[in-house]
Task: structure prediction
Amino acid sequence: MKLQVNNQTVYAYTGTQDLLPDQDTIVFIHGAGLDHTVWLLQSRYFAHHGCNVVALDLPGHGQSQGTALSDIQAMADWVVRLLDGLDIERATLVGHSMGSLVSLEAGARHPQRVSRLALLGTSLPLAVSEPLLTAARNNDHGAIDMIALWGHGRAAQLGGHPVPGMWMMGNTVRLLEHSPPGVLYKDLNACSEYRTGLDSARRIHCPVLLVLARQDRMTPVANAEELIHSLGNLHTVILEDCGHMMLAEQPDQVLDTLKGFISGGQAG
Amino acid sequence: MAGPRYPRFDTLTLHAGQRPDPTTGARAVPIFQTTSYVFKDADQAAAIFNGERPGHVYSRITNPTNAVLEERIAALEGGVGAIATASGQAAMHLAITTLMGAGSHIVSSRSLYGGSHNLLCYTLPRFGIDTTFVDPREPAAFRDALRPDTRLIFAETLGNPGLDVLDIPAIADIAHGAGIPLLIDATFTTPYLCRPFEHGADLLFHSATKFLGGHGVAIGGLLVDSGRFDWLGSDKFPTLTQPYAGFHDLVFAEEYGPAAFIARARKEGARDFGACMSPTTAFHILQGVETLPLRMQRHIDNTRKLVAHLDAHPAVESVIYPELAGHPDHALCKRLLPKGAGAVFSFVINGGRAAGRKFIEGLQIFSHLANVGDAKSLVIHPASTTHHRMDADALRAAGISEGMVRLSVGLENPDDLIEDLDRGLYASQK
Result:
């Protein structure tokens, strides 16, 4: 669906379902340079199982108009403006990578609007390597290649996509190529510059699910340690044989983990 | 670039799309000779049917063996996904019918495989899809033939029978300027010689029967989606941008993003048209793909030796091969096909139709049949076989002379092939 946020037309995928006032709402927030299609399977499942689904495209991403926002705090506030536009009081926020930082920050800044947080492929600080930042700043395709290579687990780089006939690396590369020039850098820089995440984490009181991946080279498990210690009401799941692109690499495992967390307030 | 690199082409030919079987540990790709798949529970069944979980339902739509082949070809071509089909013709039909319906128009190269020409010229008009055929060597002719209802430009990387090299970047620009995709038949080149997506093509298909298989034992096709075309940026493709009543009002471009085309081709085309590849065929094609770089290089090496030999032979009037300086597309060939211009070429024997027949009958190693891309060398004389009902004028209009012979060069020892050709040429001049 398309709606207006801050006087700009933005897009959010709802699973082709109406948003009903008596249903819980799940907001899915994508990572750097990507869009709502990364949540294809998970968002479609919840939309057809009694939840309102809002898989958004951040400004300047996917089908949303506008300029990409420069910092995580602004993105977090924008997500809440989107909830305002949809007349949704509270929602579960599910974020991947950059989207996990946006979710965390939204939970800290607007606790009354967030019922649960699921942070996937995350770490704090979410440091972005200098070669990647430089390539992204120059709109060099090398930035996309680095994300594709570092973003997928070892096995996934040779394929075996759970969705028959699909080439995972190709889809990641193409999605990032669709991102307008400058957007990927802005996103990565926002991740790198987000230094208040641990303080924000300490202000979170709602249930939190952390989903990490053993072969994640972009947000390694070890780099989530401080975040884990800063969060109170937390359950952590580590996916084996999986890289940062867990939504595509292990869609069922991610879905089942989210189902357990969202249905019972307990992590799966 | 710092850090790791993508696996190279020849590594992908062996590994892409496959992980050792988790149940048995089988290293080779198993043949999953099954029609259907048991669901774990009712919830999983419903979720797979509704596109909420990945999985197999029925082998007309997906199959684990086919999925390895599909993913491998998508990887080799640099696309986002692929669908294995019953034949190359089925792949072409699937591409067209996924994009358009009655009231649509295609601009196509006129230098085509006969089966493709038949589909476009005689069959699709019955379903309201018309085609205008143009000279592939004239990019402007593609632009001039565009109409408001044009939905696709189609051509082969190497045309038939003159081996016209398609200027893919120029034709892609024309297609994109009109807001429509470029579909390529890449059968003759395979991704080893040319990767059309790198030159701007949006969709491509293969007759996997030919060089991808290489053994001449299985008929199959593969349709590949680059994931590059901006379907939402055009109002010409409602199958991808409007709700689809056949799948709960799913809007493919919104839901699948770069994979919109290949998702619709599978969820509708594979489901409804049903021209699927058998898993045993997929296994056979995979055996060929695993040695594609080695075989294609040998095909090219042998072809170059035969071309050089025939080009200097007194019984040969002319040789048609883009790597020869006299070929009209020589410069384009050097730019787009630096690794080789394929292993199919034509030459003209002195003496016309009768000499052509004698040549064929004088051969011992080359097999006289209507196919290309086999590991074994093949030959056909169009004037006395595929085009035998045509008189000299009609043949000329089709770019075929009475003494023209088409060779598909195999993997035999090149000296044996040259001796065989000499045998035939000697017989042809008696």
In short: The longest strand of chain B covers residues 150-156.
